[in-house]
Design brief:
By secondary structure, this protein is an alpha+beta fold. Helix content is about 45%, strand content about 15%. It is elongated.
């Protein structure tokens, strides 16, 4: 199309009055030999015979388009068969061929080769390449549009499926929550009752332990073993002086006073009124009978030998016990009775099932939200950019690997330390009618003492979808060139025919 327009303009230039050399075709009507010429800036009107007289009359140089008289004038190369070219009038007849047809060197001082035909052929070749590129790219764009439509339908169907799943999960979750609450209530009631029993048992065991220790202390202090404790027996415990003046002498008077002037007390009275007072100050193991001590030591040795053998046997048995049996043993050692433990296990299982259902519901809701966000994206006039969702395209230079993820982010990755730097997050398409020729990414990682990084992506027609170059024209501002069939437009063959 462009070549045909050039030919038409070239023909119009030939048809205009050739006595006015160097004028642009669209300005030919302003140079009428039959009337005075008015400078194009309106500053002066001169006789027409002063146009191209090699003297600069107009301040804008418009009266000398075909000579070098005006430094600010423009000369239009005829370039028949090629593009009309404009050069400064100062280059006219300077001995250098600027126009491809040599029309700027009409004085004859130099003979210029006409290169217009060759340039026109090269231009036609480039136009043909561009035509083929658009044709193939547009065909691929139709495929992308089809994929986009299928992608959108798939997402819409997926939402319907997920909404149905969500509804079922909500019902299931509510049912499991009721079962969980019921199981937990039963388990808590059983645990509360069992805990009371265990607490009472613990108190009884504690009481029994206290009585045992009190009995041992009483037997230690009851020197004549008549089942009564007297001040004269107690006086042998000099350490009890700490309860009085702590002068190192525990007297009979102090002993009588300690027993509240009782001549003697039995075991029950000792347990209820004196054990807690005396026990912190008397070591039960101090007065062990020597014979008893020997017997104890002998018994201890025998017991130790038996325990060693038992421990060896137990270790052998433990090594062969399967893990499942160990777990069952640990479970059997629960402090609760079997019935209570069963309710606790049922409660834990009900809670596990409920939490799994709750997690599945959250995942379904999250997936629905993600799909809705994708459907809300502007994916082109006919969803031709849909196939780029969740995809990234890379470009490498000497130092970095750059990554473009449409509708998501842009990344700069160092080849040395493999660290990734965000150079922008998806913002929007470009502005104006041709907005799909530009992608904008902003709010990347901030530069040191500078702005946040941003990326401008220039989208151009290409047979393949690829990132072809990355530059940084300004500090922290990146520019990417991205080729894709998604922006390829059809060839305007009908316009060619009209021209």
């Amino acid at each position: 199309m462009f070549l045909r327009i050039i030919l038409l303009l070239s023909i119009s230039l030939v048809n205009c009055d050739q006595t006015v050399r160097g004028i642009a075709p669209e300005r030919a009507s302003l140079y009428d030999p039959n009337r005075p010429f008015t400078c194009l800036d309106g500053s002066l009107t001169i006789p027409f015979n002063q146009v191209n007289d090699d003297y600069c009359d107009c301040r804008d140089g418009s009266d000398e388009p075909g000579t070098a008289a005006c430094m600010n004038g423009q000369f239009a190369c005829e370039n028949l068969g090629y593009i009309v070219q404009y050069i400064p009038s100062s280059r006219v007849n300077d001995g250098i061929c600027d126009c491809c047809d040599g029309s700027d060197e009409y004085s004859g001082k130099i003979q210029c080769e006409n290169k217009c035909i060759a340039l026109a052929a090269k231009m036609r070749e480039e136009e043909e390449k561009l035509r083929l590129l658009r044709e193939q790219g547009f065909a691929k764009r139709q495929e992308l549009i089809k994929l986009g439509e299928e992608f959108k339908k798939t997402l819409e169907a997926k939402i319907v499926e997920l909404e149905d799943k969500k509804s079922k999960l909500e019902t299931e979750k509510n049912d499991l929550e009721s079962k969980k609450n019921e199981a937990e209530s039963k388990a808590n009631d059983a645990k509360t009752a069992a805990d009371k029993i265990l607490e009472e048992k613990a108190r009884e065991e504690e009481r029994a332990e206290l009585i045992k220790k009190a009995n041992d202390l009483f037997n230690l202090l009851d020197l004549n073993k008549d089942s009564f404790l007297t001040p004269s027996e107690l006086i042998t415990r000099q350490e009890l002086d700490i309860l009085f003046d702590n002068d190192g002498k525990f007297t009979i008077e102090e002993s009588i006073q300690l027993l509240d002037n009782n001549e003697s007390i039995n075991l029950d009275v000792f347990i209820s009124g004196y054990y807690e007072k005396l026990s912190p100050h008397i070591n039960l193991e101090e007065k062990v009978d020597e014979q008893q001590q020997v017997e104890n030591e002998a018994g201890a040795e025998e017991t130790a030998s038996e325990e060693t053998e038992i421990d060896a046997d137990q270790e052998t048995e433990q090594e062969s016990v399967p893990e499942t049996e160990v777990n069952e043993t640990a479970k059997a050692e629960s402090k609760y009775d079997a019935e209570t433990q069963k309710l606790i296990d049922e409660s834990n299982e009900a809670r596990r099932l409920f939490e799994n259902s709750e997690r599945d519901l959250r995942n379904a809701e999250r997936e629905i939200e993600d799909i809705k966000k994708k459907l809300e994206l502007d994916l082109g006039q006919n969803n031709e950019f849909a196939s780029m969702i969740d995809k990234c395209f890379e470009f490498e230079d000497r130092e970095y690997v750059y990554k473009l993820c449409p509708f998501d982010r842009t990344i700069q990755k160092s080849k040395n330390n493999h660290g990734e730097t965000s150079i922008g997050n998806w913002k929007s398409w470009g502005d104006g009618e041709n907005k799909y020729s530009q992608m904008k990414f902003d709010n990347g990682l901030g530069c040191w003492n500078g702005p946040q990084r941003s990326t401008n992506v220039i989208v151009i027609c290409g047979i393949d979808t690829q990132l072809t170059s990355v530059t940084e024209p300004n500090r922290c501002e990146y520019e990417m060139r991205f080729e894709t069939p998604a922006v390829c437009e059809p060839n305007q063959s009908s316009v060619h025919e009209e021209l």
